[in-house]
Structures are given as structure tokens and as C-alpha cells.
User: What shape does this take?
Amino acid sequence: MQDTKKAADAKYSSTIKMLLEEEGAAIRKAHFDGAGGSEVVERRTALVDRVLRDAYNHVAGSGAMPALVAVGGYGRGELNPYSDVDIMFLCRDDSDRQRSPELLYLLWDAGLEVGYSGRTIQECVTLAKKDSKIRTSLLESRLIAGDASLYGSFLNTMQSEVFYWKTASYIAEKIAERTTLRRQYGGSMYLREPNIKECEGGLRDFHAAIWIACSHFRISALQELVARRVITAEQYVAFVRARNFLWKVRNEIHYLSGRRNDQLTFDLQEQAAQDFKYRNSTHLLAVERFMKCYFLHARTIREFSNRIMEVVLKKHPSRLFERVQSLERFNLVGRVLFPASDDISRTDLSFVMSAFEIAQSRHAVFSDRLKVLISRCMVNDALRKSSDVSRSFLAILNNPEGLFETLFLMKELRVLGKYIPEFRAIQALAKHDYYHRYTVDEHILFAIKTLDDLWAGKYPSLKTLFDIYRGLPKRWILNLAVLLHDLGKVFRSDHEYKGVDLAARVLERLGIEGEDRERILFLIKNHLVMTTLSQRRELTDVKVIENFATCVQNTENLALLYLLTFADISAVNPTSWTQWKAAQLQELYLRTLSHLQPRGEMASYEEGEFAIASEKIRNTAAKLHSSNEIEDFLTSMSAQYVLHTETIKAIDDIGMMKRLPDEELVIQHRHYPDRGYTELTVCAYDAYGMFYRTAGTIASKNLNILRAQVHTSKKGVMIDTFLITDPEGRLYNYEPEWQRVITDLKTALMSKTAPPAPRRYATKKSLPGVIPTTVEFDNTTSDLFTIVDITARDRVGFLYYVTRALYDLNLDIGSATIVTEGARAMDSFYVTDMMRKKILDEKRLEKIKETLLQVIKE
Assistant: This one.
């Protein structure tokens, strides 16, 4: 009898498995044929309902069974292809509990993974009161099969004892959870690779709003919020449409990944854009149009979530004891700004801009009525040209306190895009590159926030920048330039140049003319220049400084460009601003300032800084080296080395150079756990191919070079420093392997043999689809070297193949700047031929370019 039952169960499991596979394939096909998000979710949920109900009935034939209840996401009917299927066996007693394994084994044998629990009604009450996650899960329950009266008793008990019990503390906990998760998942909705479930504007925002609404308003369906006038019918339609779009994206991610996954990575974005039939437009890639659509829908989800939170948390305190200040067309009650009258024209932009100006200066918040009046404001070109509105807007930009919050609110209430339509074009625009973590508009606002923080003194190490910003006579010029500097990113390339024309139209409407206009356009056109020079050029080269000084023309332009560059770099991603970039950028600024100022003023400053750095090295090295050795070292090294090399490293380098005559080659390394890399230094007499052999040997070990710096003393001694991680960008401090690296390095450098090619390595990095590969030559910046600028997708061994190619081309590397940003390598090599001459022959330059491009693409 038992064998017969096992055989029947096995046959039934096989039938279920076949049904899941066939229907699952049909649903998958429907998705890729263009089915909407809700259709796939509903079909997937219905399929699982059917399987569980049939399986339950199959097992239940042999006796009493607990009620089968769907909980969590499955309970609310939201099953994406690989979503968790969570069920609860609602038991009357232990005999019910003992029946649940029969159903579970049947489902598992069929290949359906389910999460389960077995509880009585009283156990549900007890657990839900202790754990808000269990409470939330049960709040979304549905009866799948079994005793309906038992489930009815469960619902009645939960509603009377749990669901509306201590509602305020439950809501506070849910809001705290969302705040924590939003911060954990990037703190911004506009991330380039968003988690579509947990990020701000993701599905979890929608879920949390529903949970809170159900507890506060005691509703069972989203539509009931319309009847209660919490949201309008139009808002309801928009919210559901946005949720369905996110469902469709999540379905796509699950199917493409073959597993539960919520991270919308670069490669998945490209495939989704193709599957959703997006096409390239004149200025935007298909994937950029897809991501813009995603962010707009995510914004709608966030607005729904925020709306629910505002209504639920809204307090109605008595205003009898609050001071009321009359501010012409507004009343300020406490910190809340109200319109003095509702009789406001929809075209009164002056009223709107004044509200933001008051809110910024008084640290006030808008009342709900004021928000409504502002959001319905209509703007045309005549209003955009209003001198009163322009003065108010520029006054906002001139006040660095709370500027980010003010502009952010202007954007959220749709005012910024209405007033500056060129800005609206870049809202929710995600350029398809790995370097930028945020959308263009979010990047701009974060740049503004960086300047706000600088003004507030949050960067004590950036005293030079702080002093410059504090001393600006017209701060609005800088902030307006930051606001407009990336308008050109609506185009595919050369955004800094194309953005000038767009910005010029804005400035004309604002009535900005003369020197102020030219200064803002200069900043926009040249906002990438300081980044490029500081990171890819030798700043000790006088010609670099001379050319840049000619470009900026005066100290005012230089100061503003320095601040803009700092803000721009800092807002790219949370780790983009580094000590190295700060030092390089400041050196470029100070050297150029010295060139622009009357001789003597800046020279004394540089001499003072050099003297301080030299004395620090002398004092620290005195215990280890003689004064003659220290002075010999300092006089042989460049001023750049002395000014910007950490004292501890300079001491190491003195020791290495001291050992060199006896050992011919000295190699040392030091781990920096707090910085996440290992610093390896090679000290040797200058020799052709040294850089290539060193980089190649490191790469042959599948180690990744983040940055390389070459210093050559006046006595012909090379000190090459490499910052190294493992292939995934993490600290690699396994000492036995480092000893092998040093041994192999000595062999390669002493015997002058070619290092072995790096082994293939499958990186786990999420790589973008588009990183242009370019090889460019600069024969004007340096009088002694031809500069080879290479930009390409980074990979382990990239530097090995490039330096080997340069070596095979009989080019000697005088110095190199290696910069790796995410998956993008930006390397610049100062090279000469074997006769120490620049490469000027066009045919040879073309041959070098062809060879490098071929090597990079292999």
C-alpha cells in the first residue's frame, strides 16, 4: 500500500514538474513577445496557485490538512519568474502540523522551491507581535486551499489583535527600515546600476507605502486610497503604471539572469533596451532612452511612497501659540511657509521663485497648499525672461547655505525643468558609461552639494579651495556654471562644447551679459581641462603650465575653474575624489597661479612649501641616514617628488637609493589595508624597457595595477612606484606570493628577459557596454616627449600588453600616468625613440596607433 502511494506521488510530482516547465516556458515566451509586467506576474502567480491547490487536494484525500496560506510577496500576488514562494500551513493542532511534510516533499520533488512555516492562530499572534517582518508577511496573506472558516478566524483574530495593534510604532519601524535600506543601496534613486527592488524609487518603496496605508487607513486594496482622497484617480493610474513597468523590468532581469536578481547592471540594461524595442535616437542610445524611462517610473513610485508617508505622518498642531510672520505674499508659521492667499495665478512665476528664496533664507518648509500652487504653475518664454524672476533665481544661487536642498526641491516640484527647459532634457538621463554612478541631473545637484559642504567647512584638508570659495565676490557665477555645465550631455559626444550653445540660450533669457556671461561660458567649455591636465600630464613641465595659463587668462577664471573641477570630480561617484587627485589638482592650480601672478609673490609661497616638505623629510630621516645622504637625495629629486611624496615613502626611497650601488636593483613593497592596495617600488639605474618588464611581471601574476608613477633623479636613477590590488580591486597581502613576485621581478630586470604574458582571468566586475577605445598623440605639450594618450576598457594585464607594444616599437617610456576609473583605463605615456627624440613622423605615428589599437582589442 505504501509503495503504491509513493509511486502515485512520484507520478504526480512528475506531472506537476511538466506543468511548471510547460506553462513557465509559455509565460517566458509571452514576456519576450512583449507582455506587460502585470500580465507575467499574474500568470506566474496563477500558475503557482494552481499547482499548490492541486497538490494540496492530492495530498488532502488521505485525511485532515492544515489550511494552505500564501504569505509575503506571494500572498500579495506578486510573483516574478524566480521570486520566493512563501507559504504557511495554518494549523489547528499538532496533527495538522504533521501533515505538512507530505505536501512539501511532493512540491520539492516537482522542483518547486518553497519557503514554509507551520503555525497555529495563536502562534501567529505571538510571533507577529514580536517581529514586525512576520507581521508584514501575514498582513499580505491569501488562502490557497483548505478550511476557509479557519482562515476566516485567522483574519479576524489578526485584525483585532495584531494588524492595527500599536500602529504608530509599526509605521515608525517600517519608515526606519526604508531609510536604512535606501542608504544601504546608494542613497539615491538615480544610480547607474540600481537595485530595482531596494533602491529609492524601487518596488520596496511601493510595498512599504502599501503596508503603512493598510495599517493606518485599515484598507485592503490600493484603490481604496482614491475613495479616501489620499490620492487622485489620475495618480492611482500613474502609480500602477509605474509599478507594472518595474515588474516588467524585474521579469526581464530574472529571465536573463536565470535566477532571482534585482540589480539592473550595465549588460542587463543593454539587453533589456533591445528586448523592450527601444531604438537609438539622434542624440541618445537605446539603452539611455530605456534607463530614462526607468528613472521616470521610479520617480513616480517614490512620489507615491512619499505621498503616503506625508499623509500618515502629518500632524495638525494648534497654531495659536506659534508666531506668525507676514512676508508680503506669504505667512511663515513656525518653520512652515503658507501662501497668504489662494488667489494665485498659474502663471505667477515671481510668486513661485520668491517662495523658494524665502524657504532657503529662512530654512522653511512648504505647506501642502503651497506645494500644490507651485506644482500647477505654468511657464512660458516670456516668464523665463522676467528680470524680477531672474534676480530672485540668482539670489538663490548666490546663497551657498541650503542651495542643494533648494534646487533639489525645485527639481522635485518640476519648477527647475520648467524654468530651464534645457535642464529638463538631462533629467533622469543616464549616460551609458561606467565612470558616472548617477544620472546627469543628480550628478549636477551632488556637485552643488559638494560646494555647500565646502562652504560649511566639512573638508578641513581642502583649505585652499575653502579660502577661494569664501572669497568669491559673485558665488552665483560658479553655482550657475555648475548647474549648466553638463547640459550638452543630451548629445552623444563633445558635451562640453555643445553645452556652451545651450547655456548661452539660458544666459540670454536670464539677462546675463558681458564679462559674467563670458566667464560662465568659459567655465562650461573648459570644465574638463583641469581634470585632464592634472591626471594625465607631467605638471613639472613648464610648457604644460604656460599653455594652461594662456587658456585661463586670469586668476578669477582659474579660481572658478578649480572649484568647478573639484565639485565635478567629487560628484561622479562616492570614491572619485582621492588624495592623489586633490594633490594633483592643487599643484596645477598653484603652479598656474604662480605663472599668472607677478613674479615673486607665488614663488615665495612655493619656496616655503618646498622648504617645509624638505625639512620634514630631513628631520624624519636623520635617525636612519647621514645628512650628506639626505641632502644628496633631496637635490637629485624633482620638486614635484619632494612636495607630494609622503614622508614615510621618501625615507624608504632614500634607503633604496643608498643600497643601489652595491645591489644594482632594489625592490620593496608595503601594504596599506586602509587604502586597499599594496605599494611596490622598484629602484634601479635608468635602463630601456625597465617599465615594461616591471609592469609585465606584475601583470603576469594576475595582479592589477591601479596607478604607476615614474620618477627619474638627476643622476639617472629610476624610482618606479606601482599601486597594486588583486584582480577584483581588493588588497592582496599574501606574503609568500609577494616574495615570488619580487623574485620574478629581479630575474626579469637583471637578465633583461621578457616577462611571461598574464594568465587569463574571468573578472567578476560588471562592465559597461560602451567604453570607447582611443589612441591619441600630443606633440605640443612637451618639448622633449611625445605623449601617447590611451583610453580603453581595463582588464588584468592591460598595462602589460600596452607597454610590451611600446617596447617592441622601440619606444622608451620616460614617465607614465596610469589612471583606472571603474572599468576604464586612462593611461598616458611620455615616450621618445631610441635616440631620445620625439616621434614626429606621421607614418610612424600611424603605425604606433595601429599597433596599439590591435593590442588593446585582442
About this structure: The first strand starts at residue 67 and ends at 70. The radius of gyration is 33 Å. The chain has a mean pLDDT of 89. The chain has 38 helices and 16 strands.
